[in-house]
């Protein structure tokens, strides 16, 4: 992000940098124009949260890390917004928990699929799934149902940052542990997740990696990881996030 002309001291530096990345993503053919709107919706919630990771989101992130460490076949799903905002951080998370990366788009075009795969490779990914598209998510329409059979199709744990509500629901029905990152605790994606992380993906993804490394370095046993997973309460996390957002709105 060398071409950005915002001083780091600017109070809205992070937010402006994020916008700049999304804009660049659209220019490069990675992010769809719809993605700009999704980003705008997310920003509004982030503003009310105080653009910080609230404690309940940090707890969710730790539970997500525990799930990923316990998984047999974890997969991280990447769309155009995720690819534009935190490609290097996705690659690092995948390495930290030994997960596959799969490109999965709401508005799937071959061109955009390839642009995202190349972009992730430029950021250090070696294998990126998603182009084979020989698997289907049951219950949703053809184009949006496409996944790789040996990727999301056979994953036991999936990380779906910014997934749309419909597909999040269908993935959940496939008996997968679903980790959703979404700034809107009222969105269907967050509501159907096994672990909803109500935080900006630019903070959440590196935070999952940090928790995974901490747990591993501390020598956490399977039993200890399972305890973290069982003790996590998704409804309580969603309620805490909604309270924080409503309190933020009252402060304005
Ligand atoms: P529903 O889930 O209720 O069906 P939707 O998924 O169709 O709604 P969209 O506006 O299309 O709603 O999805 C965008 C979602 O992504 C919003 O909930 C928004 O808060 C979230 N979002 C956008 N940018 C970010 C970001 N950088 N980090 C985390 N979440 C984000
Ligand atoms: Mg949603």
UniProtKB/TrEMBL annotation:
Pfam families: PPS_PS. It comes from Haloferax gibbonsii. Catalyzes the condensation of (R)-4-phosphopantoate and beta-alanine to 4'-phosphopantothenate in the CoA biosynthesis pathway. Homodimer. Pathway: Cofactor biosynthesis; coenzyme A biosynthesis. Keywords: ATP-binding, Coenzyme A biosynthesis, Ligase, Nucleotide-binding. This is 4-phosphopantoate--beta-alanine ligase. Belongs to the archaeal phosphopantothenate synthetase family. Its EC number is 6.3.2.36. It comes from the Archaea. One of its GO terms (biological process) is coenzyme A biosynthetic process. ATP binds at residues 19, 41, 182-184, 188-189, 200-201. It catalyses: (R)-4-phosphopantoate + beta-alanine + ATP = (R)-4'-phosphopantothenate + AMP + diphosphate + H(+). The keyword Nucleotide-binding applies. GO terms for molecular function: acid-amino acid ligase activity; ATP binding.
């Amino acid at each position: 992000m060398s071409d950005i002309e915002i001083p780091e001291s600017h109070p809205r530096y992070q937010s402006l940098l994020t916008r700049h990345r999304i804009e660049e993503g659209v220019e490069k053919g990675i992010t769809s124009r719809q993605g700009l709107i999704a980003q705008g919706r997310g920003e509004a919630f982030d503003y009310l949260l105080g653009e910080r990771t609230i404690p309940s989101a940090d707890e969710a992130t730790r539970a997500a890390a525990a799930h990923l460490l316990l998984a047999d076949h974890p997969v991280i799903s990447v769309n155009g917004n995720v690819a534009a905002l935190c490609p290097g951080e996705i690659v690092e998370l995948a390495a930290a928990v030994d997960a596959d990366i799969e490109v999965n788009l709401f508005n799937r075009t071959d061109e955009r699929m390839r642009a995202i795969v190349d972009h992730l490779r430029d950021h250090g990914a070696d294998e990126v799934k998603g182009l084979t598209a020989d698997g289907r998510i049951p219950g949703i329409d053809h184009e949006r149902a496409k996944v790789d059979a040996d990727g999301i199709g056979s994953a036991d744990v999936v990380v779906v940052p910014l997934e749309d509500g419909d597909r999040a629901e269908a993935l959940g029905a496939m008996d997968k542990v679903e980790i959703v990152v979404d700034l809107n605790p009222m969105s269907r994606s967050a509501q159907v997740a096994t672990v909803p992380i109500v935080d900006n993906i630019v903070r959440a993804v590196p935070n999952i990696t940090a928790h995974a490394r901490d747990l591993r370095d501390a020598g956490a046993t399977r039993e200890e990881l399972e305890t973290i997973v069982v003790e996590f309460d998704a409804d309580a996390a969603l309620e805490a996030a909604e309270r924080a957002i409503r309190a933020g709105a009252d402060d304005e």
